[in-house]
Design brief:
Length: 75
């Protein structure tokens, strides 16, 4: 849902309904990062601003612990 909100805010910015400062505030990012998002949105569309971690599962604590033990960082 957050990605959809990003697209609406960036579209409004591109169409002149809001300015860059307003867009950055609505997105909750710095003005500079908002500029980066705008450029990616202009070049690649929605695909360019999708969060890269979508759909990936986090590594469980049990697996992290096993890795640390195997590599001698824990006992």
């Amino acid at each position: 849902m957050a990605d959809v909100k990003r697209s609406y805010v960036l579209r409004d910015w591109l169409e002149g309904r809001i300015n860059g400062i307003q867009a950055s505030m609505l997105l909750g990012v710095s003005y500079r990062h908002a500029l980066r998002l705008r450029r990616k949105f202009e070049r690649e569309g929605l695909k360019g601003i999708l969060r890269r971690k979508r759909g990936r599962k986090a590594v469980s604590e049990e697996i992290k612990r096993e890795i640390l033990i195997e590599n001698g960082f824990m006992r």
